[in-house]
Every structure is written in structure tokens, then in C-alpha cells.
Design goal:
The complex is a heterodimer of chains A (257) and B (269). Helix content of chain A is 87%, strand content 0%. With 257 residues, chain A is an all-alpha fold. Chain A is elongated and about 65 Å long. Chain A has one domain. In chain B, the strands form two sheets. Chain B has a six-stranded mixed sheet with strand order 6-7-8-3-9-10, with helices on both faces. In chain B, strands 2-1-4-5 form a four-stranded antiparallel sheet, with no helix packed on it. The chains are: A mainly alpha (257), B alpha/beta (269). At the A-B interface, helix 4 of A face helix 2, strand 6 and helix 3 of B.
Chain lengths: 257, 269
């Protein structure tokens, strides 16, 4: 019994110690952001790697999610003669919840895992040590550009996800199922608030971008520098990021709406 | 700051552990200025760890490492980075940045730390690449280089800032005879031509002895013996003779520490 308690305690102490290390890592990361003022090209390169390269999967997913939402809402609302409200429900669902959440999950799987693997491999092949020995701070040159790029890219991708989703909803609801086009857009226009719905959705995107980038970069930098270590770190990035997004989404929704 | 002939690196009573495993237990050694010094020792004795500690990447539990009059453990981050600009390090893997070409890898420290015009950077990089025989490979990516070429490119990068010392981590491991010969020649040439101090860790005895002025043998966290290659060859220490001749058994036992063999086989344990 005492052996079990010892292992249980050691396990949680290890987890807490790692959380503390991740927090210190975050402070160091935020402090290094100022260096990007002198080297904006590093940020642009990472915006392309994590933002532009994730765009196609986000747009395709957004289109299909919008189409499915439109179909489901139509099938339910038609029983009550309220099918004109399809546009409103599609837009609110996307802008408030699915846009930031699904984009966050896709971003963690596509860009977050890539960041972890890249940084982990840089550690395993001594590139990070090499930078330090050249008197170059990896926080300024490697970590900070990726962190800021994720923070900026995710809310923009979420906005595009929602926009394409509304188009997909229109395609199915109006073009296929015959909902009146004027009703689709006017109901949406009158029910969706820019400040309350769209801006809060963007705030969610910013929070998810912050958390996913932090987790991805920390896991890469903290991994055991072997092929197995990098593989485990990449898996942890996707799992922790996904759980963090879903948990934070509940908290943010409870506060915002 | 320091006089000619004085040791460039002075290590005193160094202690360092990884978990419960003590790597250094009071290690003290001087690395002479302007010479090629090799640190020898069995695998796992902390040779690479020692290089990382001299470069300030790892902190000692106690003891001191003084490089050119500066105590590495007590330097602020900025001063440590200033010191590192005067040190070059050749990693075992080369540690080239994989998203940059060979030319850009060598130019990297110059672009990071200077505002030199592009034409001057180009000249400096081409001169260093020519010195290591890779001017023709300047546009290659690191993935296109052989192991030996990658180390030569990394050597060019380590030299581009004209350091006062250069550290080599196992430079000969996994090299074919031609690459080995090229690296031996280069290490000797840069040491004499540029007048720098070379510190190498290796367990390739023959090669290390052929180019080193001074050898330091470490084991179990302390210096076992130090001296010129001739002094080491004539050492009366059984340990040194076992190490130099590669005998499988001796003061360093073939068997890992284990309980009594007979008792274990008879199930008496």
C-alpha cells in the first residue's frame, strides 16, 4: 500500500514539476517576442508554415461542416415551419463554437504536431545546442516566431472556417433544399451580433492559438531527444491540445454567452 | 587578459551528477593555450558533458570552469553569449540547420551577430568553405552531404567567427579512412594556421594520439592521467595500459558488477 502511495505521489509530483517547467518556458517565450520586431521575416515564414499550409484543410472542413449543419437544422426546423432560421443557426453555431473549436483541433493536428516534431528533431540532431553555442538564443530565433505565428494564424483560420461554413450552409439550405435566399441571409443578419458573437468567437480563436502553440513548442523543446521521444511528444501535443481546447471552450462559453 | 603559455581553460574540483549517477567527482584539469588537447576515456565517462559544461550549456553542482579568465558558471546570459562568440564547437552530428544551404549555414553566425555587407559575408564564407574543400558544395542542402562533408561544413561554420578555441565532439566517429584523413589534416592545419586552441573528445586512440600535443584520460569522474602521447604510452598504470591496448579485462573488469556466479547458478541467492 505504501509502495502504491509512493508511486502515486511521485507520478503527480512529476506532473506538477513539468507544469511548472512549462510555465517558466512560457514566461521565457513571451519575453522573447520583442526580438521579432527586428526580424519580422522569421514571423512571416512561420505564418506561412503554420497558417497558409493549414488553410486548405480548414476551408474544406468548414465547407462540409456548414453543409452538414444546414442539413440537420433544416430537417429539424421543417417540422415547426421555421426553416428560414437555418441561416441563423448555422452562423451562430459556426461563429460561436464550431469555427474556433474545430479549427483549433485541426490546427493542433496539422500545425501543432509539425511544430513539435520539427523542434524535437532539431533537439535530437543538436541543432538547438548548435544555435546556443553560436550565441544565438533558440527562444528568439526558433520558438518565439512559431508561438506568435500560431497565436495570429488560428483566429484568422477560424474566421475563414466560419465564413466558408456559412457558404456551405447556403449551398445545401438554399440551393438544394429550397430555403428562401433572402430569409437565409436576413435572418442571419438580424440575429448574429458582431460584437457579441463574432468577436467572442475570435477571442476563443486567440485563446486556442495561444494554448496550442505553447503546448506544441514546449513539448518539442522538452522531449527526450530520440526518435521514440519525438514520437511521444508529437502524440502528447495533439492529445493535450485537443483536451485543452475542449475544456477551455466550455469555460469561455460559460463566461461569454 | 591571460598570458601566452597559461592554460586557456582551468577546471577545478568539478562535480556534476545526472540523477543519482555521479559523472564528475572532483575533476581538475588545465587545457593549455594554443595546443591540440584530447580528452580520452571509455564511453559514458562524461566527455561530451565536459564540453557542454565548458560551453556553459550545463551547470556544475560545484567547482569551477574558468575560460580565458572568465568563470563560466558565474557569467550572466549576455556575457556567456559573448564568450561563446569566441568559442567554436563541432558537434558529432554536425548540427547544421537543415532548412538552410551550406553557404547560409556558414554565413549564419555572421548574419546573426554582425551588420557586415553582403559582399564581405560572401567573401568570408567562401574563404572558409574553400579551406575545408566545400566551396563547390555551397548550394547543397545539409541532407545532400555525406557525414564527413557535413562535419567539414560545420567546421567552416565554427571557424567563420575566428574563435580563440574550438571544441570537437568525437570528430572521427563513423568516418571512412579518407574523411578521417581529411579531418585530421584540417584539425591540425586550423590549429597552427589560425593559432587557436583545440579541445577534442574522442575514443579513437590512434588518431587522437597522432595529432594531440596533450592528452587527458578521464574515468569515473576524475582525471586518471594526463601528459603528452609519449608520456602516456610509457605510463606504468595498468589502467592506462589496458585502455591504450584495448584489453577486454583488467582494472576495468569485463563483467559488470554482479553477485557471486556460482551462488547465483545454484540458486543460493
Amino acid at each position: 500500500m505504501s509502495n502504491f502511495l509512493q508511486k502515486f505521489g511521485a507520478y503527480w509530483l512529476g506532473k506538477l514539476e513539468r507544469l511548472g517547467r512549462a510555465t517558466l518556458f512560457l514566461f521565457h517565450l513571451v519575453a522573447a517576442l520583442a526580438s521579432l520586431v527586428k526580424r519580422p521575416s522569421l514571423l512571416v515564414k512561420q505564418l506561412h508554415a503554420s497558417g497558409v499550409m493549414t488553410l486548405s484543410i480548414v476551408l474544406v472542413s468548414g465547407l462540409f461542416v456548414g453543409m452538414v449543419l444546414s442539413l440537420q437544422f433544416y430537417n429539424t426546423l421543417i417540422d415547426f415551419g421555421q426553416e428560414e432560421r437555418v441561416g441563423t443557426l448555422v452562423a451562430l453555431t459556426l461563429v460561436r463554437e464550431l469555427g474556433p473549436v474545430v479549427t483549433g483541433l485541426l490546427f493542433a493536428g496539422r500545425a501543432g504536431s509539425a511544430m513539435t516534431a520539427e523542434i524535437g528533431l532539431m533537439k535530437a540532431t543538436e541543432q538547438l545546442s548548435g544555435l546556443e553555442m553560436m550565441a544565438v538564443d533558440p527562444f528568439k530565433r526558433v520558438f518565439a516566431p512559431r508561438f506568435l505565428a500560431g497565436f495570429i494564424a488560428l483566429p484568422m483560420l477560424a474566421a475563414m472556417f466560419s465564413a466558408v461554413g456559412v457558404m456551405g450552409g447556403h449551398l445545401v439550405g438554399v440551393e438544394v433544399l429550397g430555403v428562401d435566399a433572402n430569409a437565409y441571409w436576413s435572418q442571419m443578419h438580424s440575429s448574429v451580433s458582431f460584437t457579441h458573437d463574432v468577436c467572442n468567437g475570435l477571442v476563443k480563436g486567440l485563446v486556442f492559438g495561444f494554448v496550442v502553440s505553447w503546448i506544441s513548442i514546449f513539448e518539442g523543446a522538452d522531449c527526450i531527444p530520440t526518435s521514440e521521444g519525438v514520437s511521444s511528444a508529437t502524440t502528447r501535443t495533439v492529445v493535450y491540445s485537443s483536451l485543452a481546447i475542449l475544456g477551455l471552450d466550455f469555460l469561455l462559453t460559460a463566461v461569454m454567452f | 587578459m591571460s598570458e601566452e603559455g597559461e592554460a586557456l581553460v582551468k577546471i577545478r574540483d568539478l562535480h556534476f551528477s545526472r540523477g543519482s549517477n555521479a559523472i564528475f567527482r572532483g575533476l581538475s584539469v588545465d587545457i593549455p593555450r594554443g595546443k591540440v588537447t584530447t580528452i580520452l576515456g571509455p564511453s559514458g565517462t562524461g566527455k561530451t558533458t565536459l564540453l557542454k559544461m565548458i560551453g556553459g550549456q550545463l551547470k556544475a553542482a560545484s567547482g569551477s570552469i574558468v575560460v580565458d579568465g572568465l568563470n563560466v558558471g558565474e557569467l550572466s546570459r549576455n556575457k556567456l553569449y559573448d564568450l561563446r562568440k569566441r568559442m567554436g564547437m563541432l558537434f558529432q552530428s554536425g548540427a547544421l540547420l537543415t532548412d538552410l544551404s551550406v553557404f547560409e549555414n556558414v554565413a549564419y553566425p555572421l548574419r546573426e551577430h554582425t551588420d557586415l555587407p553582403e559582399s564581405l559575408i560572401s567573401h568570408l564564407v567562401l574563404m572558409r568553405l574553400h579551406a575545408v574543400g566545400l566551396r563547390g558544395a555551397k548550394d547543397f542542402s545539409p541532407a545532400e552531404l555525406s557525414g564527413g562533408m557535413a562535419r567539414r561544413a560545420a567546421l567552416a561554420r565554427a571557424l567563420v567567427f575566428d574563435p580563440m578555441m574550438i571544441m570537437y565532439d568525437e570528430p572521427f566517429t563513423g568516418q571512412d579512412p579518407i574523411s578521417m584523413g581529411v579531418l585530421l589534416e584540417l584539425i591540425q592545419t586550423v590549429n597552427t594556421a589560425l593559432g587557436l586552441t583545440s579541445l577534442m573528445v574522442s575514443h579513437d586512440l590512434e588518431e587522437a594520439m597522432s595529432i594531440s600535443d596533450y592528452l587527458v584520460v578521464i574515468s569515473e569522474g576524475i582525471v586518471v592521467e594526463a601528459g603528452s602521447p609519449e608520456q602516456l604510452k610509457s605510463s606504468t598504470s595498468e589502467w592506462i595500459q589496458q585502455f591504450l591496448q584495448g584489453k577486454p579485462d583488467g582494472p576495468v573488469p569485463f563483467q559488470a558488477p554482479a553477485p557471486d556466479y556460482e551462488a547465483q547458478l545454484l540458486g543460493k541467492l
